[in-house]
Amino acid sequence: MHKITVSTQQRDQMVEITAEVEKAVRDVHVLDGWAEVFVPHTTAGITINENADSDVVHDVLKRLDKMVPWREDFDRHGEGNSAAHVKASMMGASVRVRVEGRRLLLGRWQGIWLCEFDGPRTREVWIDAGPPVKRD
Amino acid sequence: MHKITVSTQQRDQMVEITAEVEKAVRDVHVLDGWAEVFVPHTTAGITINENADSDVVHDVLKRLDKMVPWREDFDRHGEGNSAAHVKASMMGASVRVRVEGRRLLLGRWQGIWLCEFDGPRTREVWIDAGPPVKRD
Amino acid sequence: MHKITVSTQQRDQMVEITAEVEKAVRDVHVLDGWAEVFVPHTTAGITINENADSDVVHDVLKRLDKMVPWREDFDRHGEGNSAAHVKASMMGASVRVRVEGRRLLLGRWQGIWLCEFDGPRTREVWIDAGPPVKRD
Lengths: 136, 136, 136
Prior knowledge:
Three copies of one chain form a homotrimer. By secondary structure, chain A is α+β, with helices and mostly antiparallel strands. Chain A has helices at residues 18-27, 54-67, 82-91, and strands spanning 2-7, 13-16, 30-38, 44-50, 94-100, 103-104, 110-116, 122-132. In chain A, the strands form two sheets. Chain A has a five-stranded antiparallel β-sheet with strand order 1-8-3-5-6, covered by helices on one side. In chain A, strand 5 and strand 6 form a beta hairpin. Chain A binds chain B through residues 47-50, 53, 55-56, 58-60, 62-64, 66-67, 90-92, 95-98, 100, 105-110, and chain B through 1, 36, 38-42, 67-68, 72, 74-79, 82-83, 85-86, 88-90, 92-94, 96, 124, 126, 128.
């Protein structure tokens, strides 16, 4: 399994990691199979979304922030980052993508994103891919 | 991998594709294994939800639309469909279901749905299933 | 495949099931592989989130309830639990976690949770893990 590190600069930020996932797929010699991307944190998520126009990411993060306000009167959690926990579960902790011919099988506009909801922080992403090419 | 095409008629629409996924499972001769359903688009998602009462789908789409308004003052994305991108990530791009005895192992009321959030459009759904039955 | 039963006591409740998933992994003799956790219901979900401070769960459920009100004027579904269907799809029906050395490979603060959105009810959770250790 590959581990990569991503440093975020803002409280809410989406960082594209498609290239890192493709590199992991090549490094473990997967020809046809799958890649799984997992974030071992509870205030960050992984999602697949558009990677063509960075304005999409801006609008997505702003909508999530409006939907899930940072502070609420009912909050009990002492750390004060409960909103980030909600957003993390809304995005999910992992995605799984098919690999064909050593490449991720994504749609034309799709990229894989780490979603930071309580930055700036240093985050890990775990990338697992298989099966490796058999060499008889 | 099987590709199916779904034509949607409305901006927000859920189309059940459980039967198509079961057909793909049979076509690749999977006895016991899994089926994975992936949407290669960034303004549509895949989810599992009730397929008994179509009113559920109506209420789900209306709630999502209220939560994620189509236009916001802060929007920058020129295409104007940022809400669809948010909803797509909220639902997710794929689901994975176990197969036993050549059938999808779903709960009694569960179906697999393509979620259209920027229709009408023609959408692809990629269905992968395995492992195929070995014939020694 | 293992099936476990979870009895919930409230309409909205998160019940941690990490220990049950780890037990299933041990019972099927998985050394290095994966575990998949699936909920066969349409008003409950599965998610990964913090298991250190129970106040997080309180704040998460309250935020979801505020985002997705129980009743809306546009509701058509006779059972009156459409909000639970939305929340179920927002969390998702399954999670997948890597197994290494017979243990779930989770982040330091991560646990696996059944999310009840229409309780109290008795829920099933299906746990699948593999591959089993080969004994030559």
